[in-house]
Amino acid sequence: MSVILFIIIAYLIGAIPCGIVLTRLFGKEDIRQAGSGNIGATNVYRVAGRGLGIATLIGDALKGVLPTLFAAQATSFSPAQIALIAAATFLGHLYPVYLGFKGGKGVATALGIFLVLSPKAVLVAFAVFALVLWKWRYISLGSISAAAAIPWLVLLFEGSVWFFGAALFIAAMVIVRHRANIERLRNGSENKFNF
């Protein structure tokens, strides 16, 4: 398969809005009009319940896993091409064609991508996320902290400059997409997570 064609397919898979699809299937309100207005798992969890929140997390992560895993197992794709496919999948979630290019923050989709590119990096980054969440109870702060750590962990465990480049791009975009959360963290108005 042509790498250009697969990059397009990866983007289209990444663009599937799992949170919206699931909440509509179960007769819930439009997630974009409730809570934070975000289409991701955290907002679905808060607005539509734990079950749909977890299902959205799994669905968004699978969007990251499937194209990246296919590319990684295909002998015809180089590490540079795998990195491009991963980035295209991620951009699909952030800028989905199906929603007028207004998507989510990309944390779960990034998780799926990194589960394929560097499972060891994910384990350490998850520990960072969990510790930050446990200490301060902000999902956004945990996500930002894990995103900041993941490129360096990918480089440490995988040693691939291409995977590091993809991880750096994805991490930077995750942090940029959390700019409103960062502002709320700074002024003390960010919602805490209740265990």
Give the structure's gist in a few sentences:
The protein has 195 residues and is mainly alpha-helical. It has ten helices and no strands. The longest helix is centred in the first third of the chain and has 24 residues.
Percentage of residues in strands: under 5%
- Fraction of residues in H or I helices: over 70%
Mean pLDDT: 95
Shape: globular
SSE run? HHHHHHHHHH
Using the CA coordinates, give the radius of gyration: 16 Å
What is the makeup of the main sheet? Answer: none
Oligomer: single chain
The number of domains: 1
Are there runs of 5+ residues with pLDDT below 50, and where?
Answer: none
Question: Treating each run of at least 4 consecutive H or I residues as one helix, how many helices?
Answer: 10
**Strand tally:** 0
State the separation between the terminal residues, measured CA to CA. Answer: 45 Å
Structural class determined from secondary elements: mainly alpha
Give a structural overview.
The protein is mainly α and 195 residues long. It has helices at 3-14, 18-25, 41-48, 50-73, 79-94, 107-117, 119-136, 139-158, 161-177, 179-187. Helix 5 packs parallel to helix 9 and helix 7 packs antiparallel against helix 8. It is globular and about 45 Å long.
What topology does this entry show?
Blueprint: H1 3-14, H2 18-25, H3 41-48, H4 50-73, H5 79-94, H6 107-117, H7 119-136, H8 139-158, H9 161-177, H10 179-187
Helix pairs in contact: 1-4, 1-5, 2-4, 3-4, 4-5, 4-6, 5-9, 6-7, 6-9, 7-8, 8-9
Keywords: Acyltransferase, Cell membrane, Lipid biosynthesis, Lipid metabolism, Membrane, Phospholipid biosynthesis, Phospholipid metabolism, Transferase, Transmembrane, Transmembrane helix
Pfam families: G3P_acyltransf (PF02660)
Enzyme class: transferase
